[in-house]
User: Fold this.
Amino acid sequence: MSVGGAVIKVARLRGALIGLAMFGMPTAPAFAEPVLRPDLADRVAGREDVTFADLVRLVVPGTAGNEAIDVREIGSELVEDLEPASGAAPRLAAVPVRSGGLDRMAVLLDFGSGRDVVGLAVLALFDVAGEPRLLDAANVASGQHTYFLEPARMAVGVDDDLLAVGSTHANSSQTYTTVPLVLVRNDQLELVDMISAFDERLCAYERTQRLDLRHGAQEPFSDVVATLTEVSTRSGDDCGEAPVPEARTRTITVTYRWDAGAHRYIPDSDAFDVLARENEGRF
Assistant:
């Protein structure tokens, strides 16, 4: 994949959506910097000669429009042309990050729905110390609206950060969101996992699933502990013969540990995969 030019390549989005309605994050120094929500004309990192429009032009020719975008899907090297659904400029969000101890800028370009796909949102990593350079880019959308979680950045390594992204789609009674956890390492975006869940509110009951992320000491990469809490409550209304789940609270916890041999994070269980299959049966 060539990321230095004006065009990048993207893989087809996943067909099935699984979601997470709300996210709870601890307030900690690792998440201290807020997400930036710049306009295209805003300056980058105090630079007088570089704007966010300059960065966006490295990803999409002409800044926006119905041009094909070439970028990989996160976690996949497959390539297929995708197009934004409209000519509107993307919604921007940005987070300063570290990679190899160097300051970088992560920018999320959310185009909303893509043509023939659920969504199109490009997470792009830039070196902005000198002449801006596009280091890596990937589509992280699985819903119609994609955003950085607040807070978005976790300092999991001595020199490297982890980004948390949410991508959401909703109808009248259900919300579907996935959370890509993306490690910024060696100036590349490396997928750690896609954490998924499903939220629904019906006549007889409501079920919510909320995520909490925490991490420990950096040696050289900290454990990342993801805990999803599911709360099911009954409304008490007479809603006919439809089955009603029991009122309960349950928690599902997965710890991601750095494997020095494999050079990646590995989960200690498949509990989130099991939950995703369970939720998919509720669609």
Q: What stands out?
A: The longest strand covers residues 188-201. The mean pLDDT is 82.
